[in-house]
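Project standup — Tuesday

K.O.: blocked on the structure for the chain from last sprint. Re-posting the sequence here as requested.
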Amino acid sequence: MTPLITPADRIFVAGHRGMAGSAICRALHRKGYHNLLMVSHSELDLADGTAVQRWFDQHHPTVVVLAAAKVGGIQANNTYPADFLLDNLKIQTNVIETAWRAGVRRLLFLGSSCIYPKFAEQPIKEEALLTGPLEPTNEWYAIAKITGLKLCEALRKQHGFDAISLMPTNLYGPGDNYHQENSHVLPALIRRFYEAAEANASSVTCWGSGTPLREFLHADDLGEACVFALEHWQPGPDEPPFLNVGTGVDLRIRELAEAVAYATGYTGTIHWDTSKPDGTPKKQLDVSHMANLGWRARIPLADGLASTVALFREQLSLHLARV
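H.V.: unblocked you, prediction finished:
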């Protein structure tokens, strides 16, 4: 199968410093793609359409990977709904439309599994999109992502623009956000249990009941999936131009907390604050389409968790050494 991109392509990775974007850059480098275009937020605000147009005029990318987004956990989404909707709509529209108008040959938009209905049939197939109400705790982010996906689909349908989209499940790994207020569940647990272990705390309290089921994908697996899709996936005329990316395996948040406690060396008691929201009760992706194309996730959760905790320790030690 002839790859749909080549090492000669000028590949713009928008959001290259984020967890997903940096993993995609690492995967591209591993596959021999070194002609990457990267720009920081301080150099280019993707929410500024005029600036985005100017940057494309100057750098002429031939392939675009849109991994840039405003992201956060349940608390951040609940607190700043307008920010999550507006910022992501601007970023997506500016990059996707400008790429199309600039004659970019191929674009990959990175969405999220939160686009699917809260009570979608499990495991969730791509066809479940727009068949029911969203999870209220992150609907603003989800609506933005749905809009980006549909914009890619519309440009493909009306103008033949080669835009594809991938919908990853919950990510973790290098470059994750461990902020106390706006991190996602797994990095939040890593920080909480690590600090509890260091303080020899007798107990740790976690949000919710611990019963929801979640699926977790290592960022480097996502990076490999993105390069695979860019190289080999061309949707047929009657196929939706977006695919799920995940492991196809989920576990309860309670089990995840226990695994994180083990990885961080915490041996105290875990309490669950049921006054806090659980979010979607189960969210497992059907990843059969990617599997049929020839791609599967390779990093087991136990291995990925151990390496992520080790990296968190290393980064924290370096930070403390500089203080």
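K.O.: great, moving the ticket to review. The CA atoms of residues 168 and 245 lie 4 Å apart. The mean pLDDT is 93.
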